[in-house]
Queue: 2 jobs
Job 1
Amino acid sequence: MDDAHRVVAAYWAAAEARDWDTFAGLLAEQVVYEGPQTRERVRGRAAYLRFNAEGFPGEWHLTVQRIVGQGPHAASWIEMSEAGERYPGLCFFDLDADGKIARITDFWPGPCELPASRAHLVERY
Amino acid sequence: MDDAHRVVAAYWAAAEARDWDTFAGLLAEQVVYEGPQTRERVRGRAAYLRFNAEGFPGEWHLTVQRIVGQGPHAASWIEMSEAGERYPGLCFFDLDADGKIARITDFWPGPCELPASRAHLVERY
């Protein structure tokens, strides 16, 4: 088993470099991607490569804030920047027995209003 | 250093049980909580306990989907359920040298529309 932290670091480095060959080499043939917020799913390495290479054509750049790996599981928090905007992305990864990424679950939380019910319990930044 | 996975599992078990004494015992005195979506911040164990005990009075329940721990870092993905709704919560944790939770960054991604630009590249579920 490869180290999940190292695999996810390589995944994000390859995405940032648009190095789709290296990116593909990290994926299991039967990789499944899910985005629960939109309820979108992509199955298989070829479809997932196309999704990444064609689905996000903008001039985005990412920086890794945290990667945590344990056994076959990892999580990452990245900051994406595009057209002067910055927003966080959170991903959970499961690796297969060969150390390839077999499952990716991806979250992109947007800004939202602070509920009045807890406004007296926090500060703002 | 305590194991970060174990500490975060205990954190969520205590939250689900509303066992605020156990919850407090897992926190560093100078714990800092941040919610980047609302840009809210809470500093210190006493304020953070009050934030949790008073800020979320509903009949919520949580189930852990993933916890990943590595050294002093951990990430969790939980599903929260309340009033028939279910929604995911993602947290990143940093522990101090005593194994206490010193930093929590919390994300609650809501549902959103699938961009038309990648609709041909995914299936829906």
Job 2
Amino acid sequence: MNEVDKKLESIHEKILDILPENLSISSVNYEGPELVVYTSDPKKFAESGDIVRTLASSLQKRITIRPDLDSLLPPKQTEEIIHKIIPKEANVTSLDFHEDTGEVLIEATRPGMVIGRHGSTMREITQQIGWTPDVVRAPPIDSTVVSNVRNFLKQQRKERRSILERVGRHIHRPKKSSDKWVRLTTLGCCQEVGRASFLLSTPETRILIDCGDKPGSEDEFPYLHVSEALGAGANSIDAVVLTHAHLDHSAFIPLLFRYGYDGPIYATEPTRDLMGLLTLDYLDVAAQEGRTPPYTSEMIREAIKHTITIPYGSVTDIAPDIKVTLHNAGHILGSSIAHFHIGDGLYNICFSGDIHYRGTRLFNGAVTDFPRVETLILESTYGGRNDYQTDQKQAEQNLIEIVKTTTENGGKVIIPAFAVGRSQEIMLVLEEAMRTGELSELPVYLDGMIWEATAIHAAYPEYLRDDLRKRIFYDDENPFLAPQFHHIERGDEQRQEIKDEGPCVIISTSGMITGGPIMSWLEHLGNDPDNTLIFVGYQAHGTLGRRIQSGWEEIPVSGSGGRTRTLKLKFNVETVDGFSGHADRQGLLDFVKSMHPRPEKVLCVHGDERSTRDLSSALYRQFNIRTFAPKNLETFRFV
Amino acid sequence: MNEVDKKLESIHEKILDILPENLSISSVNYEGPELVVYTSDPKKFAESGDIVRTLASSLQKRITIRPDLDSLLPPKQTEEIIHKIIPKEANVTSLDFHEDTGEVLIEATRPGMVIGRHGSTMREITQQIGWTPDVVRAPPIDSTVVSNVRNFLKQQRKERRSILERVGRHIHRPKKSSDKWVRLTTLGCCQEVGRASFLLSTPETRILIDCGDKPGSEDEFPYLHVSEALGAGANSIDAVVLTHAHLDHSAFIPLLFRYGYDGPIYATEPTRDLMGLLTLDYLDVAAQEGRTPPYTSEMIREAIKHTITIPYGSVTDIAPDIKVTLHNAGHILGSSIAHFHIGDGLYNICFSGDIHYRGTRLFNGAVTDFPRVETLILESTYGGRNDYQTDQKQAEQNLIEIVKTTTENGGKVIIPAFAVGRSQEIMLVLEEAMRTGELSELPVYLDGMIWEATAIHAAYPEYLRDDLRKRIFYDDENPFLAPQFHHIERGDEQRQEIKDEGPCVIISTSGMITGGPIMSWLEHLGNDPDNTLIFVGYQAHGTLGRRIQSGWEEIPVSGSGGRTRTLKLKFNVETVDGFSGHADRQGLLDFVKSMHPRPEKVLCVHGDERSTRDLSSALYRQFNIRTFAPKNLETFRFV
């Protein structure tokens, strides 16, 4: 019997000691970070109230109770009972019985009502049917990605379970070393923006944090090929943690699977879905530009299949000596600060990922309370000494003013924006302005991936800002579903129609005018001096956006037959600063200032050389913390 | 045709362009760092004076000319001619014809006379016989190790040549990356003494520098098992450079071959032989202590077979982007400072190895002139703020005084000493004192490996201090051969006889009284209050030496049948400080002060935490250099 089996056996005995005599269990097993306990008395378990919580706290594990399969009612019969228990208003949209695990997946428009007060409805379901209910929210807007991911995972249930069992046994493997050290290796995004990637290592475990591309560069990858990264093979990595879905953090996660990795990826649920959306788009763009991407969509499916989602705040074992907890980072949907607790109180490291310190309309500000943090790896995008941004309130005023002026004069407004985050922020600003009457009602057209990204936001309201979530949850007032928002579904035909109609706002990808439907909008609307183009995000050097912003009035576009022709632009061009998804200089300083506890060391990364150096010296001066502005390919030892 | 063959072809053509019309070559090939040029006109080459130097400087390579085999006279005939050309006084002891390479190895007592003024005698030999002469010194004292190594390499000539060809092609492989970085990973001896090991890496090349054990610890190895070391297999290392033969730098070099390494080791010739001596002894000691060593003597032979020796000062290609030069370090025979020139003027790093700044009787002081040095990796054994040692002149006076007093009173002197370095230093002190009459003539008995180690010193006088070398070379006055030195060859019987004779000095291993023949001497002589034991080296905590030094008068020794009994010590115990092989605090500061150029960064290693920190801050304060006291397992990036 190997060590893991012995451990499971001793856990089995321990559970029997804890359980009251009338409860029995048949077996225990690991699935990913969870302990699955099988019982032939699922109903009694459900009746015993807090017993699962008691077990979880004595075993220090997340626990799932599963029924033995022969103890279950047939699905048909069960279905009726479920519908009787759950209130109509919950609006159950589907029931899906997993006969291999005894779980029934309940999709409902209002999952809170399926759960009930403190889980009472769920417990009642189990008591009556034996099956273990699991609840997901029916997306209020149809999201292709969310439903594709859910269907795919459903098809792959069997393989997925064997992955989880394998990962579970690996997480709970016996420790092999008495040596103690904690190290961090920088594989990208040091003294630069892009290709975020870090390796956290101990004598037991090697964790890769993020694995992104470098925008604007085709040949700068994270340093995966050096010995300490994948030199001993992709499976020398025990786990991957993804802080958020932006491509400069996620683009090469699927590549790991092409290299033979078959371990877990830990991320929030929306990060998993957005990673799917953005990496598929990454492949599309590469194909359009005639480049051969380093992996195929098959590898994206592998990545999704290997993703273990964890909610904010849940302390999760990912190795014999490492627990990870993800916390809201305020940057984009599902974005997280990853907190690693290493050893038994040995060391704690936080990776900020990308953060927004103050709240935005979409998200609460980044979390700053942690049980312990010795070292912080901090993004520095706007860490430079002059990187202060306009306050968002002022930015919103500026935006509304320009929209108002343009549309009152009969013109149309075009806003190029990133699909994820910025677009939804602008939608919320416009929705409120129209609702409060500050702006008269206007159609707002969403083009490119924006609609899909918005649907994903709507599917995960738990990840949105408190008051926004409250509006959606309790007040049944989903601003993304406001009637003025329209999705462009019929391509250029529809755009032509819109051109011929009255004033409106168009939000379209790509955000830096490097391709996508925004190109059509320039053709349709660029020639009219009544229209206005508003930049709401950073325009990188070398992009068409940057050129238009700096005053070009004639731009080259590709015409039919691949020829390039010139497009004359006569519309107004405006820039509204202050909608960044990143903390500015002040936000970064405030983030560290309000961290509780304050870290002993800060490594400033994810910013150009000047920004990381500036931020590093400012933090040192203000808080007397040891700070560093590392280069790529360095290894720091903390313990 | 692969890239290396193409390069060889173009070199072939280039040589033809350079050569005068009457000279021809048949082929060129790499053997290790050298370019071997084959010709059917070896005699004409020899006549053409400087042509080899011209080729070497235009090709920037070390060049060896070899005759085509069919152009050679038969050995018998050749032998006569050689003996005619070389003066009798050279005392040729053997001729060895290598028919595979057309080389003839000439061993002589006075190799300088075989070479002749500016190589004139050698050239004359080639002109007359066609064979390429190679000269080695006949060891003036029979050294088992030197003759074993030479015989072994002779037996293995064929395999050795194929290794050299493989290594040569690997050194001259095409560069594969356009990326530029230079990194150093600390695998041992940081904030500690022992297990010296570093990894120097660039996008092209990974070099391991030293690989030693940690004295006093059985389970602390260099961190070879981490990913960036041998994670991708032992052959992910391109070359090993060994600074000197002490076990804390060399003990695990043979282990690399057990792990599958089959690349080159670069070291001086005496370092190779001493490594053989010391690692074999390491296996013996392990066997005596009932431990299973991690490798066998077979692996030591592999290490010797893969060693490419380079003399001090010779700039040697060891990778497409790295040249190494070894310089005298003044520490032990053949010890070197390893200077690495990386890229084409990109970066320069010096590894001090262990150094002695001032000269000793045996060796010149460490070299301090380098073409360029940006970073110095500096030993810090005596880097602590109070680590100042007695001046050696004074130490010698103290030693002589004690020997004099003891022996004049009819007593015997016992000096426990390390076989390599310290023993020879003491021998030279005693020899001079007796020669000048400061001390009357006394027999000096050498026990343990000391005689063998001394024989190795005598075999390589080029590596000794200028005036010592001059005495041996030109004045034919080898102090190691002075008549008062006697080798203990008959074990305890001989020791008993010596006990019963008059006053004498005994120098015996082990230096810290942890085993070896010194144990017998304690039994024979420890009980006599007329005798004196003199410590001349550091006694580590936990050793018997340390206990005796601190005043123990009864010590446990293992008796017959494995039982432990008590030995009473009545002899005098003295300590003479000042014979260290290491620079003291002042020496380390002076070394950096006199370095030309002064490095920009210094990493203080090979010293305990306090010593490395003290030295690091002293160097920073005095010279305003960036200094570090790294931990093990860190990676520094310099470019």
